[in-house]
Specification:
62 residues; mainly alpha; elongated; binds zinc ion
């Protein structure tokens, strides 16, 4: 997959937020942030981590 194809596969809201130039820039930098799990397969591990954190939070609530 090329960057452009990956970019096209992003959720519409992400495409609008990033733009293709910004997306490529973030790819180069390997950027992660609190919402990077939304960016797709590259951030699968981030999504897993996010789920783990949310589960932990839920278990803390009684
Ligand atoms: Zn990430």
């Amino acid at each position: 997959m090329t960057d452009l194809e990956n970019y096209r596969a992003l959720p519409p809201a992400e495409k609008e937020r990033l733009g293709f130039a910004k997306y490529q820039e973030e790819l180069r930098q390997g950027t992660h942030n609190k919402d990077c799990w939304l960016w797709g397969a590259r951030h699968y591990r981030c999504a897993l981590e996010r789920i783990g954190n949310l589960e932990h939070k839920l278990k803390g609530q009684t």
